[in-house]
Amino acid sequence: MAKENSVYQRRRAPTEADLQEIPWLHLLRPPERLEIVPQLVVSDPQAGDYVCRVGRPVTFWFGVISGLLKMSSDNESGQTMTFTGVPPGGWFGEGTALKREVYRYNIQALRPSVVAGLPLETFHWLIDHSLGFNRFIMQQLNERLGQFIAARELDRMNNPELRLARHLAALFNPVLFSGVGEVLRITQQELAYLVGLSRQRVNEALRVLQARQLIRVEYGGLRILDLQGLRTAQFG
Questions:
Q1: Largest CA distance in the chain
Q2: How far is CA 31 from the centre of its chain?
Q3: What is the pLDDT of residues 53-81, one digit of tens each?
């Protein structure tokens, strides 16, 4: 609980640089932007801090300015199931915010991150007043549906290279994660957490993907070379 409180207590107003990393702000009309920018807050969860927890009521709609988060839940046996990673540019929880529900998943920082929050009532104000914002949310929901259908298919995949390729394709989704670009800043241990493989097995799978010229491993991250190939490649 202390960690959750500290994330909230460390909130601050966004800087101009923070605002530049929020992908939907430029879709707002000037009066809408003037209305909501003063209500945005930013905080800096550290590795292991929770941004959202299962069973807690939604109070903000969140997005990642920098860093890396993971979305997960615990099953009945106490094992953690990771659904996806949330890299820079990713905004999440719009379905929960629209329905004013409690969270059905945990969002936890894998490394020191910067996260922006839009208050729930401001989120609904934009739904009621902004056509550009509504279009953004509809696109988010459509992409999210495809993401989770793909995640269910991943649950049945046993090939490590295939699992890693599909997970990387999801993390490079240009609609959901506009801040990633061509390079994803991620460690092999962070990938292991997200994919559900050992670090050693992730290392071996990365070598295979690089040999196929789908990615290039660089210092501190991965460069995408063939996004469509990551989405469709097959491995024996």
A1: 55
A2: 29
A3: 999 999 999 999 999 999 988 766 666 77
